[in-house]
Amino acid sequence: MQKKLFFVFVAVGIFAFLTAASASPLQPPQPGQSLPEMKLPKPAEGKDLRYLGLSGSGTFTVDQIKTQAVILQVFSMYCPYCQKDAPNMNRFFGLIENNPGLKGKIKILGVGAGNSTFEVNTFKKKYQVPFPLVPDADFSVHKLLGEVRTPYFIVVKLNGSKKAEVVYSRLGAHENIEAFLADVVRLANVQ
Predict the structure, then answer these.
(1) N or C: where does the chain have the smaller number of CB atoms within 10 Å of the terminal CB?
(2) Whole-structure pTM value
(3) Which residues of the chain have pLDDT under 50?
């Protein structure tokens, strides 16, 4: 009887292991899907709030940003690839802001995965990041986005009353920021 019971436990254990192993891991939002609704802390700096078209304090959702398209950059202060890419992203921001046809139509928002307000502010100051960065200290947003590695880029098209639609989802820095910007304009149909 004990041998039968032992084999039953082993069989149940193997079944549980195989079931858990076959469960699909979280996936980042893909083009054509809606961006998961997430509450983000409003930036403390007035210029960052104005850039996003927000006011006050508290939280906000991506679809409240006043623009046609939002580029979410999931980064970490401790990510060497994010550190290396910071000057490139600053130039990318400049390409948008210095183009009268794009300024105000495309916004960039950095989300610090696992980073506190202090860590996000340290990264922003050290790398002179001109666009808003918000903390995600408890990884709640990071989990909603499929626990992506960093840097990760998600571009969403804001459709007014409809949910924010993902039009681009990719891991890794962009070598050619001009080509990335052209992709954003085309995919989000920025006009």
Answers:
(1) N
(2) 0.85
(3) 5-24
